[in-house]
Write a structure and sequence with these properties.
Elements lengths: L7 H23 L2 H6 L2 E3 H8 L3 H9 L6 E3 L2 E5 H9 L15
Antiparallel strand pairs: 1-3, 2-3
Length: 103
């Protein structure tokens, strides 16, 4: 076992720096906390499983503006309420470019 000895003043300085870093992190995330507490967010895979669609169909819904999404760190997230609303509209799964169904 290795023992490292440092001066108490240096240790106290490190503690203070860590405490400051923790406060900065808490302050930075505090403004986003209400957003995530109010609403459940789903990623691409969860939406595809819930709607029983492919990733390509999901991309089409995004491209056409049928399903709003938010991007965080290059990953898309969808509000559960938006996904449920789209499901409740009974949106056909096979639509062509103009939005009409192929019947």
């Amino acid at each position: 076992m290795e023992v490292i000895a440092i001066q108490k003043s240096i240790l106290d300085g490190m503690k203070n720096e860590l405490k400051t870093l923790l406060e900065l992190t808490e302050n930075a995330t505090r403004k986003y906390t209400p957003i995530f507490k109010e609403e459940q967010w789903l990623d691409n895979q969860e939406v595809c499983l819930m709607m029983k669609i492919t990733k390509r169909t999901l991309q089409t819904y995004k491209d056409k503006g049928l399903l709003p999404y938010s991007k965080l760190n290059r990953k898309n997230y969808y509000k559960l309420s938006d996904v449920r609303a789209l499901l409740e509209t009974g949106l056909p799964y096979n639509t062509n470019d103009n939005g009409f169904t192929n019947q």
